[in-house]
Design goal:
This protein is an alpha/beta fold and about 350 residues long. The protein has 12 helices and 10 strands.
Amino acid sequence: MKSRRLGKSAIYVSDICMGTMTFGNQADEATAHRVLDMSLDAGINFFDTAEGYPVPPDIKYVGVTEEIVGRWLKGKNRDSIILATKVSGPSHAWFKSPKRGGMTALDRHNIKVAVEDSLRKLQTDYIDLYQTHWPDHDTPYEETMETLDELVREGKVRILGCSNETSWGLMKSIQASERVCAARYQTIQNNFSINNRRFEDELAQVCRQEGVSLIPYSPIGGGVLSGKYQDGKRPAGARFSAYLEMGGRQATMANRFAGPRAQESTARIMEIAKEAGMSPVTLAVAWSKQHDFVASTIVGVTTVEQCAEIFAAADLVLPDDVMKAIHKVTKEILYPMG
């Protein structure tokens, strides 16, 4: 497993990160702990969670994921693990975090309360990477960055990152940090996959010029690039099958990720993977890692059986002809997720 630096920080992580948003909902605690152990055995030292997990958030079990991770972490060598979590932010996209009664602005009060709660649930006295889960363009960035800087100075957090942020927001936050002499974001966690290359439009260049690392989520397109949703299939227990039944924002998200153009793109990617002698899951994860602005690719599973195809991408470098074939598909089917 290769390792890469997070931004300009002193922290190096495995280039695959195990995400945990299914733990406590789609995956029970025993499964979660087995997945985390297998990840560690495979050379993964980087694990990502959030105060609002599992997804989709529900007041009945919000925060359970951090507790599951915390109980697993308690028996491990803490210094050998790079642990990331997130403060919710206003959650104005696919779901609304129920934390703190849904009042999750990125002001001083919310950040301070959130980090203490996460430290308690994770049973640790520090968080390696603390991220804002959703941007808050209404709260002054100076207040957000100064408060996050306090956490770094207090030793509760090592480095900072953002998630689901825009080019404008990332630059705004970096400028705010410089103005108030506060710690800056070293990472950004956004959606990035073969079926969603929008990050390359502007944000990739911001990352290159400002020394910020992308740690992409949904490299398999929310499971779509595995092929399990092809031809209108709705497999039992799958995330988007459940989202379609839920309706509302979740159904909108499912239709975006697994819509007709995404399925058309996926069909062609599956053919490329077949010709290359690997599963489309392995191909998608390897492709994600093969970008200069990416530090570590976040994956996620609901069963231990799903780990093998992901781990197969650990030391895999896709040859030029495969990369060119993928690029041809994404050029001809531009923005398949809309």
